[in-house]
Write a structure and sequence with these properties.
Blueprint: H1 4-28, E1 32-41, E2 46-55, H2 61-70, E3 77-84, E4 97-106, H3 111-123, E5 129-139, H4 142-171, E6 175-187, E7 195-199, E8 202-206, E9 213-224
Antiparallel strand pairs: 1-9, 2-4, 2-5, 3-4, 6-9, 7-8
Length: 225
């Protein structure tokens, strides 16, 4: 049988347990976590091309790469292969085709010239080719992104320390040394967002606009005194 006194004791024990848990949680929180970000515009330093060639099943990957090299295209690489019916022609041919997705980069100044060469190739396709499509945009290379990151990090750390000082003053503590860092970035790399999706084994191409705008994020944990 449970008496009223027993219930009262149990409730006091429960209150004590919750109080100790809250105290332990408060003691576990040490330091200040601050998140900051900066938007940086990065000038594009490369032209990215994505192309899809539809060829007969007898045409090899090596032959497709060689055809792009003959156009003066630097280091084309095959990034996707598919086989399926040609749904872009009417009436559709009886046999299936091979689809090769090609990727390459070039100097920004060469973008228009390479586009003209690809247009000329597309206007007069050699035997074995059914069609060619491509998308291109100016983007920032990984080297440019790395350089921007090196520039942004000291600025972000300064922003984080300034914000931590404000929080510490409000809390009545002092900001100590950095005890943790976590970083990331987000951007719109233009043709790096150009997409090729396979629908019924047929590649469809498209591209997004180029902004050259990247946001760098940094989370900093400061010790407190």
């Amino acid at each position: 049988m449970i008496t009223r006194g027993t219930i009262a004791i149990d409730m006091r024990l429960i209150s004590l347990i919750f109080g100790l848990a809250a105290l332990a949680a408060a003691q576990g929180v040490d330091g200040l976590n601050v998140s900051v970000s900066r938007i940086i515009n990065i000038a594009p330093d490369q032209a990215e091309f994505y192309a899809v060639a539809a060829v007969s099943l007898d045409t090899t990957q090596q032959q497709v790469v060689a055809a792009f090299q003959d156009l003066g295209i630097p280091s084309p690489s095959v990034t996707g292969v598919a086989v399926g019916a040609n749904t872009y022609s009417y009436p559709p041919p009886d046999g299936s085709l091979s689809y090769f997705q090609i990727y390459f980069t070039a100097a920004p100044a060469a973008m228009k010239d390479l586009a003209k060469k690809l247009d000329a190739f597309r206007a007069k396709l050699p035997d074995g080719y059914s069609y060619l499509q491509f998308a291109a945009a100016l983007t920032a290379s990984q080297a440019a992104l790395d350089a921007a990151r090196q520039t942004a990090l000291p600025l972000l750390i300064g922003d984080a320390r300034s914000r931590a000082q404000t929080l510490a003053s409000a809390a009545g503590v002092k900001v100590g040394a950095i005890v943790g860092l976590a970083e990331s970035y987000y951007g719109n790399p233009g043709a790096a967002n150009a997409w090729f999706q396979v629908t019924s084994a047929v590649f469809v191409s498209g591209s997004s606009s180029t902004t050259g705008q990247y946001t760098f994020f940094l989370n900093v944990k400061f010790a407190t005194q």
